[in-house]
Design goal:
466 residues, alpha/beta, Spore Coat Polysaccharide Biosynthesis Protein SpsA, Chain A, 39 strands, binds calcium ion
Length: 466
C-alpha cells in the first residue's frame, strides 16, 4: 500500500517554556522530530511530510536534505486537523494510506508503527487508531464506542462529559487512514468545540457517521505513546530512550556495569565484549570498537575508537582513535585529533587538530595542538606546542622515533626530524635535523658555599652575631 507519513510539528509547545520549538528538544541524542522520523523510516515508510509552523525555518534546517522528505507550512496553527489539511497539497494523488504521528512522541517504536500498518492492511478499515489504556487518562482524547463496540468518536478532555472522562482508553495521536477517506473528512471539519480549534480527532466521527469503519490497535506498552508537553516529560522520554539503548547494547554483547548510570545516544555503536563503567556519556555519532574498556566518567561526542582501547575519565570530541589506545585519566581530545594504534595519552594532556602516529606517547601534562607527529615518539612530561602567535595558528611536525625531553616548548612553525632528541627544558624555535640532539638552555652555573655564606639566612645570622 502506498503510504505517506504526516508528522505534526507546527505547534509552539507553550508548556516547554522555551525559545526552541518543542520538537527540536533532544531526547536520547536526537531531536524528538528526528527520532520520530527515524522510527518511521525504520518501519519502512520512506515518504514523509512534516508540517512545520512555529519556528518553521529552524525545524526545517534541523533535518537533512532528503528527496522523500517534504515540508508543509501551517501558519497560523489552528489545530491538529488544520495542521493535516496543510499537508494535503504535498501528498501525491496516488497515495493510498496516510500514517499520522505527532512530532512530540519520541518513544513510538518502529515495531508499533509496523504493527499499525499490518493491522490496517489486514482489516481493510477506513481508519485505525493507536490507542492505549491509561489508568489516569487526564489530558488525552478519549475513545468513544457505540453499543456494538465500534468506535464512533474521539472526544477531547476539554469537551468531554463526566461519563466520557471516565473512559480510560485514550487516543495516542498516531493513526493510519485510507487517504481518500481522510481527505474527504478533513474537508468537513469545523472548529465548534471548547478550544475553537480544528481537531484532527473529529475526522473519526465524520468517517464513522458516513458509514466508514474505524478500528483500533491497543499498544501493550502505554509508555511508548507518551506525548512530551513539558520538560518533566522530556526527561522521562530521554530516560526511557537511554534505558532502551543500554538494553540493546547489553543484548548485543556489551557489558554495562550500571545501565541507569550511563547515557548512550541512539546512534552510538559499541563492539562486542566492550565494558562501560558508570558515569559515561556516549553522544552523537560515536562508535566504539570491540573489547574496549570505557572506565568511569568519560564523555565521548562524535568520536570513533578502534578495538581494545582503554579510557578513563576523559573527554573526547570529534576525535578518531586507532586500536589499543590508552587514554586518561584526565585527558582532553579535541576536534581533529587522529590517533594511530597503541597510542598513549596520559593525565592532563590536551590534543587538538593533530595526528599522532602508532605507538607514540604523550603521557603527562602536555598540550599538543596543530601537530603532525610520527610513530614511536615519546613526548616528555610538561612539553607543549606553542601553536599560536596571537594572530595565526602554526603547525609543528615531529618525525618518527623522536624523543622530546620534559618541559620542552616547541614554537611553531617548527620541524623536528626523525630520530632526533631534544634536551629537557628546551625552547625549540628552529628546525632540528634528523637524529640530532638539540638542547636550548644556558649552561649550569654553581656558586660554591653559597648557602652557608651568602644566602639571606646566612647574611641575617652574621648580622645578628655582630
Ligand atoms: C492530541 C489529540 C488527543 C491525543 C493527544 C495524544 C487532537 C485534537 N487531540 O492532543 O486526542 O490524546 O494528542 O498526545 O488532535 N500541532 C500542530 N498544529 C496545531 C496544533 C498541534 O502542528 O495547530 C502539533 C503539535 O506540535 C504536536 C501535535 O500536533 O506535535 C499534538 O498537538 P498537541 O497540542 O500536543 O495535542 P494534544 O492536546 O496533546
Ligand atoms: Ca501532545
Amino acid at each position: 500500500m502506498k503510504t505517506t507519513a504526516i508528522i505534526l510539528a507546527a505547534g509552539k509547545g507553550t508548556r516547554m517554556k522555551s525559545a526552541l520549538p518543542k520538537v527540536l528538544h533532544k531526547a536520547g541524542g536526537r531531536t524528538m522530530l528526528a527520532q520520530v522520523l527515524h522510527q518511521l523510516r525504520a518501519a519502512g515508510i520512506e515518504d514523509c511530510c512534516v508540517v512545520v509552523g512555529h519556528g518553521a525555518e529552524e525545524v526545517r534546517q534541523s533535518l537533512p536534505q532528503d528527496k522523500n522528505l517534504r515540508f508543509a507550512l501551517q501558519m497560523p496553527q489552528l489545530g491538529t486537523g488544520h495542521c493535516v489539511q496543510q499537508a494535503l497539497p504535498h501528498i501525491s494523488a496516488d497515495c493510498e494510506a496516510a500514517l499520522i504521528v505527532c512530532g512530540d512522541t519520541p518513544l513510538l517504536t518502529a515495531e508499533t508503527l509496523q504493527n499499525l500498518q499490518a493491522k490496517f492492511a489486514q482489516t481493510g478499515a477506513d481508519g485505525l487508531i493507536l490507542t492505549a489504556e491509561m489508568p489516569d487518562p487526564t489530558g488525552y482524547g478519549r475513545i468513544i464506542r457505540g453499543a456494538d463496540g465500534g468506535v464512533t468518536a474521539i472526544i477531547e478532555e476539554k469537551d468531554a462529559t463526566p461519563a466520557q472522562k471516565a473512559v480510560t482508553e485514550i487516543n495516542t495521536g498516531a493513526y493510519i487512514f485510507k487517504f481518500p477517506a481522510l481527505k474527504d473528512a478533513l474537508g468537513k471539519l469545523t472548529n465548534d468545540n471548547a478550544q475553537g480549534e480544528y481537531y484532527l480527532t473529529d475526522v473519526i466521527k465524520i468517517i464513522a457517521e458516513a458509514g466508514g469503519r474505524i478500528d483500533t490497535l491497543t499498544t501493550p506498552d502505554a509508555v511508548e505513546t507518551t506525548g512530551v508537553n513539558d520538560r518533566v516529560q522530556l526527561a522521562f522520554a530521554a530516560a526511557e530512550l537511554y534505558r532502551r539503548k543500554a538494553q540493546e547494547l547489553m543484548l548485543s554483547g556489551v557489558t554495562i556495569i550500571d545501565p541507569a548510570a550511563c547515557y548512550i545516544d541512539q546512534q552510538v555503536t559499541v563492539g562486542q565484549d566492550s565494558v562501560i563503567y558508570p558515569g559515561c556519556q556516549l553522544r552523537g555519532n560515536t562508535h566504539i570498537g570491540a573489547n574496549c574498556v570505557i572506565d568511569s566518567d568519560c564523555i565521548l561526542t562524535d568520536s570513533t575508537l578502534g578495538a581494545g582501547c582503554h579510557l578513563t575519565k576523559c573527554v573526547l570530541t570529534e576525535a578518531t582513535v586507532g586500536a589499543g589506545a590508552n587514554i586518561g585519566p584526565f585527558a582532553y581530545l579535541r576536534p581533529g585529533t587522529k590517533l594511530g594504534d597503541n597510542v598513549k595519552i596520559g593525565d592532563f594532556a590536551e590534543i587538538k587538530n593533530s595526528t599522532i602516529g602508532d605507538g607514540s606517547k604523550v603521557p603527562h601534562l602536555s598540550y599538543i595542538g596543530d601537530t603532525d607527529m610520527g610513530s614511536g615518539v615519546n613526548i616528555g612530561c610538561g612539553t607543549i606546542t606553542c601553536n599560536y602567535d596571537g594572530m595565526n595558528k602554526h603547525r609543528t611536525t615531529i618525525g618518527d622515533d623522536v624523543f622530546i625531553g620534559s618541559n620542552t616548548n616547541l614554537v611553531a612553525p617548527v620541524t623536528v626530524g626523525a630520530g632526533a632528541f631534544i634536551g629537557a627544558g628546551s625552547t625549540i624555535t628552529r628546525e632540528v635535523s634528523p637524529n640530532a640532539l638539540a638542547v636550548e638552555r644556558s649552561h649550569q652555573r654553581e656558586v660554591k658555599g653559597w648557602a652557608a655564606e651568602l644566602s639571606p639566612k646566612a647574611l641575617a645570622a652574621k648580622k645578628a652575631a655582630k
